[in-house]
Structures are given as C-alpha cells and as structure tokens.
Amino acid sequence: MSLLKIQHLSKSFEDKKAVNHISFTLEKGEILGILGESGSGKTTLLHLIGAFQEPDEGTLLLENKRITPPSQKLIAGHPDIKLVRQDYGLFPNISIRENIAYELRYYEENYRNKRVDKLLKLSRLDKVQSHLPREVSGGEQQRAVIVKAIAEQPKLLLLDEPFSHLDAVNKRKLKVEILKLIKSEEVSCIFVTHDVSDAYGMADYLAIMRKGKMLQVDAPQKVYQHPLNQYVAEITGEVNVVSIEWLARVGLSNLPNVFIRPEQIFVAPESNLKAGVVALKFLGNYYEVIISIGEQELKMFSFVPLKVGEEIGVDIRH
Ligand SMILES: Nc1ncnc2c1ncn2[C@@H]1O[C@H](COP(=O)(O)OP(=O)(O)OP(=O)(O)O)[C@@H](O)[C@H]1O
C-alpha cells in the first residue's frame, strides 16, 4: 500500500491552471523533491496535498484513505500531514526547547520531556536548547522548525523551499541533518525547490514541474541522465544540446540522446574527434572549457588548464 496516492489532481486560479492533472505515488519513508521555477505550481501542490487548499478535481489518498478537502471540515489541514511553509517561524520569546515542547503540549509531561530530549539530540540542538531563536544560527533555526514539524510523528512532512535562506555551506550541513532526522523518524517527505542542487543528495525521487504539469518523475540520476526534453535537461544541470544530424556527422550516433553533459566530454589525445579550445574559465577546483567541433560549440570541464586556440582530441562517454 502506497503512503500517498495522487490521481489527476488539478487546481485553477481564475483561468490559470496552477496544478494540472498531476498523478504520482509516494511510498513510506521516501523523499520526493519537486523541482520547478517560480510560478510552476509547487506551493499550490503542497497546499493541496496538506488539505490547506481545495482541489478542483482529482483524488488524494493517504494510506488508501481519502484526504478530506478543507471545505468539508472545520479546520484546514490533516492530522498526519505537516506542512512547513516558507515563512513558518519559531516563537521568538521562548527557548528552542520550549518551541519544540509546545508542539507536544497536549501530551503527558513525562512522554513530552523524553520526546523533546530525543529530538534535541537527534537534531544536535541539545547544546542550544535554552537559547532564544535569535541566539542561534539560521541553520539551527531551520532545524528547529523541522523538528517542531516532526515532533508529533506525522506520516508525511511537506517542506516548502526548506533551504532558501541559507548560504551554501549551511545548506549542505542542513541537508545532511534533515536527511538523518527524516530517515531515523521514518517520516515520508515531499519538499519543493527551484534549485536542483537542493534536491541532489536528498531526494530519492525527483519530479520536474512546469506550468502546473509534472513533466518527469524518477530517481534523480535517471532524470539527469535521461531527461525527457530540453527543459528537464536544462533545469537539472549544465547541458549541451546538439542535433541528431550533428551526432551522425561526427560519428556519435551511439549516444542515447541529444543532451550531452559537460562531464561526459573528456580529453583523449588519441581520438580522431578533434576540437579547438575556444575559451577557458577558472572555477576553483576545475576549469570550464568551451570547445568547438566543426560549427558546434560544447562546454566541458577539465582539471588541468588547456590553451585557448590549441587543438585537442576528445571523446564523449555515454
Ligand atoms: N491564491 C492564489 N490566487 C491566484 N493565483 C494564485 C494563487 N496561488 C497561486 N497562484 C498562481 O498559481 C501559479 C502557481 O503558483 P505557486 O505559488 O504554486 O508556484 P510556485 O512554483 O510555488 O512558485 P514560487 O517558487 O515562486 O513559490 C502562479 O502563477 C501563481 O501566481
């Protein structure tokens, strides 16, 4: 039995389809990352799943039971689904510990204290538990927000842009921490982002959304290596888009598609495929190199500097 089953879900605002006939399933313990540019319908989709917005059509099942839409109950939301919104914050005048304990206020004190201790330890917030939110780092605040959301052991956690206000270093750390938390608490999770690097290393499955539609859902590696179309290829990473005719002309018809990632191209002095070095950019631990093969320019990466103007042999791996 799937944890979440969504079928033909749609939602329009006036004449605009924010979510357009979306269907997918999520199994227990899985993490789904939804990637899409601003306005693609990601937040609307999360709000529909969490029963905060009313779908126009479609079915939403959590463990085979219908998720009741907000129009049919007093309070919007679902007891087993927690949504962490982009602006979801902490109470500013109580400690991190009290913020987490608040979520468990209706539980017996002994259980509450034990659970808060466990969560603080799991999230490595135990050292700052007596601090006010403004006295801890942005990463710690965000961790506390997520701990609050999983305190009551929801079946499904929905995160709206969980990393958007963190720098690259803190983002990397937070991803590891969240992953640990989610996996050890066995909660399933759907998070949305407009930055593919947020999804890699975190999502078991990656869904690409555009104009309300889900274009492709698969393991991140599969989406990256076999993008359905140019849009998916470009939003999931750097890519050279060539034509089938060009592939045939240079003897590369064996490649699976017309999307060539820069790291597929490598220097091979013995190769018959010759390229001219057009430009070189130093990017820290590697160089970004523009080469031309005939009239086709391609981007590749190199760990050693190449000379602009030199001719090199190259090969392209599958
Ligand atoms: N309450 C609303 N009323 C009218 N239009 C809305 C409403 N909510 C969303 N929309 C529209 O629906 C479309 C999808 O919006 P949504 O916020 O779901 O996209 P998103 O992918 O989450 O964008 P972002 O990354 O900027 O948050 C947008 O065109 C938006 O303007």
Automatic annotation (TrEMBL):
Residues 4-236 form the ABC transporter domain. Keywords: ATP-binding, Nucleotide-binding, Transport. It comes from the Bacteria. Pfam families: ABC_tran. SUPFAM superfamilies: MOP-like (SSF50331), P-loop containing nucleoside triphosphate hydrolases (SSF52540). The keyword rRNA-binding does not apply. GO terms for molecular function: ATP binding; ATP hydrolysis activity. InterPro entries: AAA+_ATPase, ABC_SmlMolc_Importer, ABC_transporter-like_ATP-bd, ABC_transporter-like_CS, Mo/tungstate-bd_C_term_dom, P-loop_NTPase. This is ABC transporter ATP-binding protein. It comes from Emticicia agri.
